Amino acid sequence: MPQPAPIVGIIANPASGRDLRRLTANAGLYSSTDKASAIQRLLAAFGATGIGQVLLPSDMTGIAAAVLKASQGPGARDQHWPALEILDLPLTQTVADTRLATRCMVERGVAMIAVLGGDGTHKAVAAEAGDVPLLTLSTGTNNAFPELREATSAGLAGGLFASGLVPASIGLRRNKRLLVRVPEQQLAEWALVEVAVSPQRFIGARALSRSEDLCEVFACFAEPHAIGLSALCGLWCPVS
User: Fold this and answer.
1) Alpha helices by DSSP H, the chain
2) Residue 84 and residue 95 in contact, taking contact as beta carbons nearer than 8 Å
3) Cα separation of 56 and 71, whole Å?
């Protein structure tokens, strides 16, 4: 009996790539149009590799609406896009939206979740995804965890895995992560890059610019070519 075509989820954070560093460090901007275009390239790649259905959550910036409109056009038919289902979930425009969408996709039995966002978005998805593999695409500001990848080639690789044409032993790798627990604050939070300890009393923009504001760093990886505190640790003691 033939197996049903696999289902894949796509989560695109509308707010990624728009933080303070665009003003302080001339960082790049990923618009909603850019993200919608990347999702369309993913859909074309998924269609070429046998994915049957894609789940995409709704949003307030027009990403899902633009993709849905494109899915009804001749280009989508010519490229054999998978069936697209928009998840109509309650929206708060906070990280809770990302976590809820991830849980819904896991419950639906997706073979993989493609994530378009920055370090924070990927951290939120990873916290809810369990053992569901992630296809990580950087659309944030100066990211350390998700690497810059073209959506078409990344989608082809992910689609080949999700369709069972490439085994997990070849197509996947497991990343390290840190778990921070503060029982007094009922806090249990994952970190995919590093955890920094600072004597600063106020969170502010969560950016450290003075060496005296940094006490300790616990890093999942430390590579000189990365960015942020991970890169500094990579100069002292590189860890892949």
Assistant:
1) 21-24, 32-48, 63-71, 74-78, 95-107, 119-129, 151-162, 168-171, 229-236
2) no
3) 12
Q: Helix, strand or coil for residue 60?
A: coil
Cβ–Cβ < 8 Å for 146, 136: yes
Are the C-beta atoms of residues 194 and 230 closer than 8 Å to each other? yes
104 φ/ψ angles, rounded to the nearest 5 degrees: -65, -40
Q: Bridge-partner residues for 167, per DSSP?
A: none
| Other beta carbons within 10 Å of 199 | 8
- Token reading at 17: 């790539």
Token representation of residue 158: 């992910």
Strand partners, 11: 115
Q: What is the mean pLDDT of the chain?
A: 90
Task: Name the helix (H) or strand (E) containing 136.
Answer: strand 134-138
Going by C-alpha positions, the residue among 122, 124, 117 that lies closest to residue 141 is 117
- Sequence-distant (6+) residues with CB within 8 A of 127 are 99, 189, 190
- Tell me the whole-structure pTM to 2 decimals: 0.89
Using alpha carbons only, how large is the chain's radius of gyration in Å? 19
Query: Each residue of 216-238: pLDDT tens digit?
Result: 999 999 998 888 888 889 998 89
